[in-house]
Amino acid sequence: MSETEINLPDNFIHEIIRKDLEAGKNGGAVKTRFPPEPNGYLHIGHAKSICLNFGTAQKFGGKFNLRLDDTNPVKEDTEYVESILEDVKWLGADWEDRFFHASDYFDQMYEYAVQLIKMGKAYVCELSEDEFKEYRGTLTEPGKEPPGRKRTIEENLDLFERMRAGEFPDGSKVLRARIDMASPNIHMRDPAIYRIRHADHHNTGSKWCIYPLYDFAHCLEDAIEGITHSICTLEFEIHRPLYDWILNTLDTPCKPQQIEFARLNLTYTVMSKRKLLELVKTNLVNGWDDPRMPTICGMRRRGIPASAIRDFCETIGVTKFNSLTEIELLDHCVRDDLNKSARRAMAVMNPLKLVIDNYPEGQVEEVETVNNPEDPVAGTRKVPFTKTLYIERDDFMENPVKQFHRLAVGKEVRLRSAYFVTCTSFVKDENGEIVELHATYDPATKGGNAPDGRKVKGTIHWVSADRSLEAEVRLYDKLFTVPDLSAIPEDADWKSYLNPESLKVVKCRIEPGLAELPPSTHVQFERIGYFFSDPKDHSQEHPVFNRTVALKDSWSKIAKKGS
Ligand code: ATP
Ligand code: MG
To answer: For the chain, what is the mean pLDDT?
Structure first.
């Protein structure tokens, strides 16, 4: 069993399962699956589905399958397959030895289709795409009987066999289930279940030139694997009668139950694979793993831990109502997680020189400081302290406002873990910009505490001017400027709402030990935010840190506003 535990609070799906178990349904088995189509990278919405399916199996001592729903050879790619495996594993959902492909079942699906034909419940149809739509009718008008509907079983068997043998071009024929052209549910009006595609498949190569369509394939995949509860998103609710019709018409080994839940939508981002692909293809982002993307690999590269994503998925819950989740809730889960685990460090984003006039020239003190106040075993480290330091420009005010507790002339503050310093003067350049501060330090306050019990209101971070290193930091922000992209005007281009400020690259000064961190290490830059040494670009010679999330938590504010 997996080491990762997902503790899903009870939801309506669990109530259904509990009742099924009480009634002795499925012989007491619970089996779920995550069935992505390998036509793109997984995103945070998929994470919700993964956590739900895996967490539900775990909760009931059941089994969880990973299955690639690879029935469309044209859009699928092994690059996507590899990324899916990596991402699901990283999230901690353990499929053990149950990794399957829908394409593994093509032979069985073909046999099921033949069975339908033999029952008089499927036929070959030659209507063009436009005619197909015309015959299908509309929401208010029933469909008309397609010409092929009256074909004999023998004829249908022969045509279907020849479709398989490659005798016909793409689009010239489909196999349709024979259900009801007058059904109020348009999906029941003799849906197409097999189509011709002369295309190589990433798994079956050139073996097939006919491929089953989603609605026919999916329920059979579930049945073949013995899935008990087939959990999917709400847009499939209207397909459920077809799901059930196929399973009830055919003699399948088991009859899985489809249950729908509301998909995850997040503010300030898009979740459609098509749109994400467009962003990648048009270079509006730097690949699928761009840290601004809502993809799992983008989030991983940004420094969002898998545990924070799981925590987020546990928190949002599972309902039947579509809604929009605030991205700040995800940020909150990330902070909560990293607060416990990320070591602290000092980095100055916007440096201003501070010269301590009474500190000996050339002296270097190794100041000891704790790595993580939230984690007693994280230990301490040494940071070099020298006469000339950098502090944040924001931590000084020429004319301090009332509540400003940081540096100003005549004010004393604590330099984190080092000394108390009092600002004495500042220097401006010819443009009137402050370029240097001067201060004196109190040697008796070593370690950042005054023996006389004297208090200061402000503690600021710092780095040594000549012992610090330069680093590149990538400050990520929201991908879009509007919270709800489904609410933009219909004629507007969604890409015009991309946030031009979503990535800012700046140079900062870091304490020297940070360069030695391996890539993919979490660190909190004190008072600034959580950062992550970039998995691809960070090195000792060229330190690169991605901002995972800023420190300020706006979620609690939003939560209060909402309550
Ligand atoms: P498409 O079908 O348009 O290519 P998709 O996002 O539905 O895109 P799938 O690979 O079919 O992609 O999704 C795999 C599973 O993840 C499905 O069961 C689907 O319902 C679920 N899923 C997809 N998007 C979300 C979401 N935003 N929230 C929750 N579950 C989702
Ligand atoms: Mg889908």
So the answer is: 96
